Amino acid sequence: MYTKEEIFERLWKDYSELNPSAKRIYDLFIAEGETVVNDHIAFRTFNHSKVNVDVLSKVFLNAGYEFKQDYHFETKKLYAKHFEHKKDPDAPRIFISELKLELCSKFLQIAVQDLINRLSRDILKPTSLVFSGNSWGTPSYETYTKLREESEYAAWLYVFGFRANHFTVSVNHLKKYNSLEKVNQLLKNNGFLINDSGGEIKGSPKQLLEQSSIKADHISMEFKDGVKEIPGCYYEFAKRYSDEYGKLYSGFIAKSADKIFESTDYYDKKK
Ligand code: NI
Fold first, then answer.
1. How far is the CA of 259 from the centre of ligand 1 (A)?
2. Distance of CA 82 from the midpoint of ligand 1 (Å)
3. Cα dihedral sign, 220-213-76-44
4. For position 184, which CATH number holds?
5. Residue-number span of the structural domain to which 47 is assigned
6. Hey, which of 106, 189, 211, 261 has its CA 20 to 30 A from 117?
């Protein structure tokens, strides 16, 4: 069993090494005198019984988390659950989504079954799975491209496997950069690209949650057919508001998250 601190440290190490932008932004906030607290950490998976949300969430349930709410994303064929720590209100929320395979093409279903068949019994243990990354082997760029035509989400999972898809900075815990506008401006001034699908800021104070994110870094990945540059993970920023009873909103807004998922969509770097 892992404590939540051990889990997050391990996930952050993997994520920040893979995505230099996340580390650069984190360091930028620290240099500005800010304290970085995570609003949530998100994971992706397939709804296959061996790796679904219920399997992936076990390591968090064992570390004191409990289920809070679920969400449906019809066009992206996703279902998600969010979890919160029972005692520590400053612990990051955990957001885990899964792709509904039965709604996908035969090609995608067969490809995913083949990947899962390649996972060892050790990897499939709940304590290993969430940290395991891609343990089904070097991907093929041809398969990646074909998956991407159907689901950017599946293509990302095919290459990167099980790891944090994104960490999210809690803007509520920032002093100087206390709005999404200020955070986005800081990022743009430092050369980062903001995901503008659905506008740079998703949600509104009225909806009690505002979110923005950078577009995922292009990182060099080894494919069977050579090294290619593809989008990795992204860094997200969230500001929460209190409801009419003064209670801070803690859920997610499906319509906003739907657009945030697109932060890992393939894009031409030269544009
Ligand atoms: Ni998120």
1. 10
2. 10
3. positive
4. 3.10.180.50
5. 4-264
6. 261
